[in-house]
Amino acid sequence: MSPLLCCRFPPPQEDDDLPYEEEIIRNPYSVKCWMRYLEFKQNGPKATLNMIYERALKELPGSYKLWYNYLRERRKQVKGKCISETVYEEVNNCHERALVFMHKMPRIWLDYCQFLVAQCKITRSRRSFDRALRALPVTQHPRIWPLYLRFARKLPLPETAIRVYRRYLKLSPENAEEYIDYLRSIGRLDEAAVRLAAIVNDENFVSKEGKSNYQLWHELCDLISQNPDKVKSLKVGAIIRGGLTRFTDQQGKLWCSLADYYIRSGHFEKARDVYEEAILTVVTVRDFTQVFDSYAQFEESMIAAKMETTSEMGKDEDDDIDLELRLARFEQLIARRPLLLNSVLLRQNPHNVHEWHKRVKLYEGNPRQIINTYTEAVQIVDPLKATGKPHSLWVSFAKFYEENEQLDDARTIFEKATKVSFKQVDDLSGVWCEYGEMELRHENYEQALRILRKATAIPAKKAEYFDVSEPVQNRVFKSLKVWSMLADLEESLGTFQSTKAVYDRIIDLRIATPQIIINYAMFLEEHNYFEESFKAYERGIALFRWPNVYDIWNTYLTKFIDRYGGKKLERARDLFEQALDGCPAKFAKTIYLLYAKLEEEYGLARHAMAVYERATQAVDTAERHHMFNIYIKRAAEIYGVTYTRAIYQKAIEVLPDENSRDMCVRFADMESKLGEIDRARAIYSYCSQICDPRVRRGAAVFSPPADRQRVVSRVVRFLGDSIPYACLSLSVF
């Protein structure tokens, strides 16, 4: 072997090394050859292993694999030793040598920096991190920064960590929350607030912790309000007030944060002003409750603090006055709560009529405030948007003046109310009626009549009642509510002709109800205008259809019979026929019975029977059984029981089975009383066919009358087992 080769490759120490030495002589630039040799010597002396690594790296200084394994081996060799020993510095020098060639390899930098951090070499570690960031491309920086930041957070020098974080955020501004948490942990709250305000105002910022913009804002408010002595770089008032406009659904918390800031700053009067402003501006009950409770707690704490100070320092006259003032302020706050809450609800919906009425009640005993409230209410409430009855505000306003004997003012209110553009005609008609009622209460009868006549006067431009495109003033003349009151007043205070004219006008306008028609007819009857009353009924009949016309027909027919009896029988018959024409089965029974009664009392019996016959066919199915019973009873009384045979037969044919069985038993009973046993037997035989044979009950339980029992026994003997005995018992039917 030449001297030159001996210098480059020292002779092997053992015979086993010879193959590996020969191989690397042949292939000095093969990493695999060196790695096989190193693997073979892995369990040998560390000095020998290190020498082989040095030889390999001298030949292949650009091999990442060799450097990585060599450095890892050197770090493993010093593990567990004191960090002050020189071997650590030797390993550090190895890393430095490696970085000459491996300065673009982030793994080498990471291992070196971690190794330096473990040695507690703060300055050298920081500089190594900086060198790594300068040497590596930006795309590799995310691998360095987590370790660098973890190292910086552990430093006893916060200023160094802050500078590191500032550099880091230039590359990754999305991680600002981590920096803010660190600043809060070291008490640097001013910069934390500034950073937090910056990300809150950044619309593109997305929290890595999943926090919403409001949550970040809430954190900022808590931070600046709870630390007024440490946060100096921000205008707290402006920030929180800006949040009030951005987060309208969380105004309560933000107002409390602003007040808390002033309280912690010692500006108690400013805090009180903030609370007052808050309870006068919040628009939800939740926010109001939150602010009010915080306000009350603040006042209580102020009173408690004053009492404690007074007890420690001793009392004097000024302290007593100040304490009484604080107590009075607190009591007034509690007393104002219902009114303040009402104001919140009205800010929510200024057109809420019910809340305006509640506000008036809260001012009970204070006439000036009541008048101001009513005035404000009628000016603010838009009838088209109102919740409730907007006319009730005008009416209550006028009644307030009336109760205080200021009728002229009450009339002025009513007159103004009649000119309001209400949404519904019923609102305006309510105003007119209340106006008239007020005049009646004060016995101004002529004035009341004049008011209602004015309300019902036909306007220059007529409009349909339900035409919403027209103002209610043009439609109120068709309001039945106003006309009904006018009719009542005319009956009580007016003349016959004026009252009649009112009723006629109601009918002409086609706004009458069946009750109005009946009232009109009764009015005419009271004044002995019988034919006129009948004409009123007929006019009403022309207006309505079934079933609405039922009450009119019923009253008309009854009154006609009471008036004429049998004197105008043909006319009465015509009326009944007219009434029954198109009459629904549900309402036919009463009219048919009235018709039959007329024929019985004033007409012919056969006509009455004919009416009953028609009734059994015309009435509702559920009423037919009862109608047949009446028919049979009246026929028996007029013509005798034998006349009812045909009626029974008809009833058995048309009635449902449950009613037919009853008719069969009654029919058979009648025949047995007449001695027609064969007929009775035939009827029972027919009845057995419509009985349910499963229905059997003992004769001991159901005991028919004695005479019927004899008939039943005879029928049973005759028919045998062909019919169930239960069918022959009256209790079954």
From TrEMBL:
Cellular-component GO terms for this entry: post-mRNA release spliceosomal complex; Prp19 complex; U2-type catalytic step 2 spliceosome
Listed Pfam families: HAT_Syf1_CNRKL1_C, HAT_Syf1_CNRKL1_N, HAT_Syf1_M
Gene3D superfamilies in UniProt: Tetratricopeptide repeat domain
Domain Pre-mRNA-splicing factor SYF1 central HAT repeats as annotated: residue spans: 177-381
Keyword Nucleus carried by entry: yes
Stretches assigned to the Pre-mRNA-splicing factor Syf1/CRNKL1-like C-terminal HAT-repeats domain: 383-696
Segments passing through the bilayer: none
Superkingdom assignment: Eukaryota
Compartments it resides in: Nucleus
GO BP, sorted A to Z: generation of catalytic spliceosome for first transesterification step
UniProtKB keywords: mRNA processing, mRNA splicing, Nucleus, Repeat, Spliceosome
Domain Pre-mRNA-splicing factor Syf1-like N-terminal HAT-repeats stretches: 16-174
Similarity field: Belongs to the crooked-neck family.
Protein name: Pre-mRNA-splicing factor SYF1
Organism annotation: Merluccius polli (Benguela hake)
